[in-house]
Amino acid sequence: MNLSMLLSSLLFLLASLLLLSVVLELRRRARQVVRRLDGKAPSEPRLSQWLLALGTSRLGQQSVKLDNETQTLLNGLGWRTARKRALYAAFQVGVPVLALALSVLIQELFFAHVTHRWVAPTFATGMGYLLPKRLLAMAVQHRKKKLAIEISTFIPLLRILFESGMAVEQSLRVLSNDGKQLMPTLTHELRLVLARVDSGLELGDELNKASRLLAVDEFTDTCVILQQLIHQGGGAMKSLLALKLLLDDRRLTRLQEYISKMSAKMSVVMMLFLFPALLIVLAGPGLTALSRAFAS
C-alpha cells in the first residue's frame, strides 16, 4: 500500500513537472519571438528564462500584487523593474511547490508510517511561502543600513560641491558618476532619480518620491534639505552641517547601544564557558584533597 502511494505520488509529481515545463517552454518560445521581432538576440540562460516565464504568469503576478507589503519591500530593495519583480514572483511561487514536493518525497521514503500525513506537507508549504518574504525583508533592512551609513559620507561631499559653485542637479550628477565605489547603493538611487529627471520630470518631486519609496530617515532628511535648496536657491549649507552633526550623534548612540549589548552578551558567554573552567582550576585541587582525606 505504501509502495503504491509512493509510486502514485511520484507519478503525480512527474506529471506536474512535465506540464509545468511544457507551459514554460511555450512561454519561452513566445518571448523569443517577441525579442526577435524587436531585433534582440535571446542571450539569457534557460533557467533564467523559465523563472521569468513563471514570474510573468498570472499566478506569479497575483502572488506579488495580493500583498502590499511585498510591493513596499521590493521598492525598498530597489527592485522596481518588471524583470526583477518577475524573478521574485517566480521564487514566491516556486519555493512553496518545491518545499511541498520535497516534504512529500521525504515522508514517503523515510517516514511512511506517520499517522497524520498532511502535517509535514502543510508545514513545509507554509514555510516555503513565508521564506522568500522574510529573506526579502532582511535584505531591505541590510540595504537601509547601508544607505544610512553612506549618507554620512554623502553630505560632506555634497557640501564641498556646493561650496565650489555647483547647483543641486550638477552635484548629484557628479556624485552619481564618480562615487560608485564609495557609495554604491546611494549612487544607484541617484542614477534612477536623474534618469527620470532627464525624461522631463522635476528634480524635487523625484527626490520626494525616492525618499518615500526607500523610507530611510537619513535620506529623507537630506532630500528635504535638497528640495529647500532647489526652491530657495541657498541657505541650506547650515542645514546640511546640522544634519551631518545629527547623523554623527545618532551613529555614535547606536554604536554605544551595540557595545553595551555586546558586553552583556559576552558576560553571559563568560559565565557559561569561562566560569566552569576557572572553578575546575581553582577548586579542583581542594576537592581532590578532600576526597582523598575522606577516602583514607
Explain what the structure shows.
This protein has helices at residues 2-37, 46-55, 58-65, 68-77, 82-110, 119-163, 168-178, 184-198, 203-214, 217-232, 237-295. The chain is mainly α. Helix 6 (119-163) runs parallel beside helix 10 and helix 9 (203-214) packs antiparallel against helix 10.
List the helices and strands and how they pair.
Layout: H1 2-37, H2 46-55, H3 58-65, H4 68-77, H5 82-110, H6 119-163, H7 168-178, H8 184-198, H9 203-214, H10 217-232, H11 237-295
Poorly predicted ranges? none
Bin the helical content: over 70%
Q: How many strands in all?
A: 0
Largest sheet: none
Distance between the termini: 69 Å
Protein name: Type II secretion system protein F (GspF)
Organism: Pseudomonas mohnii
Subcellular location: Cell membrane
Pfam families: T2SSF (PF00482)
